[in-house]
Fold this protein.
Amino acid sequence: MSGDALLDKPRNVRDGESFDTAAMDRWLKTQVTSLQGEPAIQQFSGGASNLTYLVSYPDRDLILRRPPFGHKAKGAHDMAREFRVQQALKPVYPAVPTMVALCEDPAVMDCDFYVMERICGIIPRANMPKGMTLTTEQTRQLCQGVIDKLIELHQVDYKAAGLEHLGKGGGYVERQIRGWSDRYDKSSTWNTPGWKYVRDWLSANMPDDVATVIIHNDYRFDNVVLDANNPQKILGVLDWEMATLGDPLMDLGNTLAYWVEAGDDRLQQMLRRQPTHLPGMFSRQQVVDYYCDKMNLKPDNWTFYEVYGLFRLAVIVQQIYYRYHHKQTRNPAFKHFWLFNHYLHWRCKRAIKG
């Protein structure tokens, strides 16, 4: 099968998630004077948080990113920050997409948004594209390459690159436990757990920061772009909405909250958004061992980072469900997210007691 047939492809824009194409086109042509013709707009299937669109001109494809419609948690979906973080990172971490233009004019759209160059390739979602088969060894090479790309990010010298402004530095662990707990309270609904036991345990077991590095904060297979002709080669890393300076083990805990293995239970399989179940993929424990060996880190209590990652994922799930519960989005995929909240709560308690 040709590489083009495996590329990540957009679909028609979902109901309730369209925007004024003509207004966007007029603005964009003031920023990129070489654009000609009228754009066609499609939407990528990923994006339960910020929304991602393909803007196709006759001779150029661009990507547009904007916040979701409806309720937004304070401080979340800051498109100007996401744009500027990537601009600053690009010289020292080339996998970041090339930024094109940022719009902060409410006359163009009801929100800030930005446009960037498209990195054309394969995005590994819940399953690899139809027709794409990898051997067990190729899958292991891909898995290792994805982890290596996270390690490469964590090894960037942010001070030498002048990126101190990306975050607040030390005290990251404490800020995250407090911050995600507050976000959960603000997005709770009547049909979800209170999480008191887990939150109290996290607060009582906080380690000191092991280091301060640039962290992605949402690093998953479906946020990397693979070369269609050589899937072991990573062309880009996407979705820098939550990138900051922080503790690298917290970032790894976030990543492993999404890591579903072949032997995991049925509900966990329903949460799977990346192909980590395939033969050749590392187990969660193998990821921890490989990463910590490469980074020369020895966590005293890995369970803390595991539980933190699962709790944080539950808050993200709940924030999305909150919008659906209050009819601020019509996406039917979010209807049962409250059940996943209960499931993640159970997994956290099991990890703590285990």
